[in-house]
Amino acid sequence: MLRRTFALSAAALALCASGWVQAQTYRAEYRLSTTLGTAFPWGQAGERWSELVKEKTQGRINIKLYSGNSLVGGEQTREFTAIRQGVIDMSIGSTINWSPQVKELNLFSLPFLMPDYKAMDALTQGEVGKDIFAALEKRDVVPLAWGENGFREMSNSKRPIASPADMKGMKFRVVGSPLYNETFSALGANPTQMSWADAQPALASGAVDGQENPLSVFVAAKLPTVGQKYLTLWHYVADPLIFVVSKQVWNSWSAADREAVRQAAIQAGRENIDKARKGIAGSDNAVLKQIEASGVTVTHLTPEQRKAFVQATRPVYDKWSKSIGADLVKKAEDAIAKR
Ligand code: X2X
Fold it and tell me: Is 22 inside any structural domain?
C-alpha cells in the first residue's frame, strides 16, 4: 500500500516536471488590446511584443492582437476596466485612455508640463515613472515597460492657429479625459469628446473642425485627406504608452515565463519609442517635411506666442494638479527642472 502511494506521488511529480500541469493552466491564446493598428508605431509595438513573447517562451504564450480597441467596441476609455474584468489579458495603452480610472495618469496631460523629449524621459525613466507603476499595481495590473504615442500637435480644417483667439468657437475632437475638455474650453474652443474610431468620420464630414494627435498618427491616419490642412506645433502634452498584463493572467504564468514577457515588453517598448520619434525628434524632421510637402500649413509658435497658450490653460493645470496629487506633480516638475 505504502509502496503504491509512493509510486503514485512519484508519477504526479514526474507529470509536473514534464509540464503537463502547466499546460493545463496556460490558455491557448491571450488577448492583447491596443488603440491603433499596425499602420502605426503603436500597433507595430503590439505585433513586436507578441513575436518576442512567442520566441522567448518557446511558444508557451501565444498572443493575439486586437487593435482598434475591438474588445471594447472601440471605446478606448473602457479598456482599463475591461482588463480588470478579465475581458482583456494584456494591453499597450495610452496614459490618456486609462486616466479616467487611474487619476495619476492625467499627469502627462497637464498642459505644457513637458517641454521636450528629455522632460518626458525624465518622468517615465525616473522616480515619477516608478510611482505611476505603483499606482497601476494597486489596480490589478502588472506594468512592465514604457512605450510612446508622442507629443500631441493640433490640426484643423479652417485656419492657421497661432493664438488662443484663433481657436475661438472652433470644434475640436478631444480624447476621453475631462481634462482635455477643460483645456480646450479654457482656450476658447468648442471641444467634444469622442473615441478615435468616431473621430475620423467626424473629421471627414466636417462635424468637427480639428483634433490633436502625434505627428506619426497625423501622417499614418492620412489626416490631410480629411481636410486637416493647418497644423500647429505647440507640444502641449504627450502620451506615453504602458505595457501591462492583468494580474490574474500574470499569476498563472511560471516565474521564467513572466520574466520572458517582461523582457519582451522592455525590448518592444524601446523599439517603439525609437519608431515613434523617427522623423520627428531632434534634428530629424523628415515627417514634418513630408507633412509640408502634402500641402499642410505648419505653424511654429514663437516663445511669446506659446506663452499665451500656457497662460490661458494655467487654471486647468492648477485645478488638475490637485486631483492628480500635489506631491506627484511637484516631483515631476522637479525632475523636469533637473533634466
Ligand atoms: O484617440 C486618440 O487620439 C489616440 C489614438 O491618440 C489615443 O488613443 C490617445
Answer: no
pTM of the predicted model, to two decimals? 0.93
Max alpha carbon distance in the chain (Å)? 89
Residue 142 domain flag = yes
Residue 192's DSSP bridge partners are: 173
* Ligand 1 site, residue 149, Cβ cutoff 6 A: yes
Which stretches of the chain score pLDDT less than 50?
14-15, 17-18, 20
Per-residue model confidence (pLDDT) at position 22: 52
178-181: long-range contacts at Cβ-Cβ below 8 A with a sequence spacing of 24 or more? 178/100, 179/99, 179/106, 179/109, 179/110, 179/316, 179/320, 180/96, 180/109
Distance CA 175, CA 180 (A): 7
CA of 147 to the centre of ligand 1 (A): 14
Count up the domains in the chain and report the number: 1
Determine whether the shortest distance from the Cβ of 239 to ligand 1 is under 6 A.
Answer: yes
Residue 143 lies in a domain: yes
Residue range 136-155, pLDDT digits in tens: 999 999 999 999 999 999 99
Q: Whose CA is nearest to atom 1 of ligand 1?
A: 196
Parent domain of 103: 28-337
Residue 15 lies in a domain: no
